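Supplementary Methods S3. Complex input for the iron/sulfur cluster-bound model.
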Amino acid sequence: MRTVYWLQCGSCGGDTMSFLGMETPDMLELFREHNLEMLWHPSFSSGDLLEQEELINTLRSGRKTLDILIVEGFVTTGPDGSGLYDTYMGEPKLALVKDLAHRAAVIIAVGTCASFGGIGNIGETGANGLQFLKDECGGVLGKSFRSRRDRPVINLPGCPVHPAILKDVLCMISEGKMPILNELQCPEEWYSMLVHQGCTRNEYHEYRVEEDDFGGRGCMFFHLGCQGPLSYGPCNKVLWNQRNSKTNAGVPCFGCTQPDFPKEHAFFHTPNIVDVPLELPKGVSRAHYLAYKGMAAAAAPERLTSRKNRV
Ligand code: SF4
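Predicted complex, serialized as structure tokens:
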């Protein structure tokens, strides 16, 4: 039996909602089938504050073994490094995170805020990820931090994280395995492909058949700010609720898995210069892009350009 403690910091609770929405298996089945024991979760644990305090004390002292620490939400260091913007029973969560992280065998940052600071990293909040701030390794635990099992923090970005990813990582850990991580400490299995790959609108993208409103069939890269060609994540590999993804439904990807999320420009808008997006798909050179996109648009088949039906 492996113990799991879920700590919520600066968070909207979206990762919890995502995980609770998992269907096959549901969360309870997952824990039962994989011998995981949820010691505490802020949304569905029923113990009172005294029990919670006692649990934290036993984990901190090492009297109870902590196998997996899951952190949801950014960790604030503000104001002035004190962490007092976010406290638990008068104590900065910053201190609690550090203590539990040093006791845990494996640490999982769920969501972009816990991974990279995310949406909390605006203004004077001092919001950090556990081991990253944006794409720079460090965060509140520091670059050289390793868990009791000599592992870096496993980052599972997304706003929220896809429940299938968290489920798979928990299954692996329960079987004594660990995911292979990329340079941002995200599992390669889930974060080595672009959202663009697998999108049903790829053919429209290739021929630059553009969409300028939500819910249509065309590609949303050129006017509606779709970040699919710039964002790593499995949204079009593993559908949400096993049914759909944002881009399938006609809503642009806004790059929520990326360390620089949220970007400084507005969602749903593509910054352009003379009708060429400022940011091009990963790995594409501007000269090649200018040459082939013009030709591709001219060669677009009528069955794409004359699309009339809505998705
Ligand atoms: S809508 Fe977005 S993800 Fe889909 S093909 Fe266009 S750019 Fe790629």
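The first strand starts at residue 2 and ends at 8. The domain at 193-311 is CATH 4.10.480.10 (Cytochrome-c3 Hydrogenase; Chain A, domain 2).
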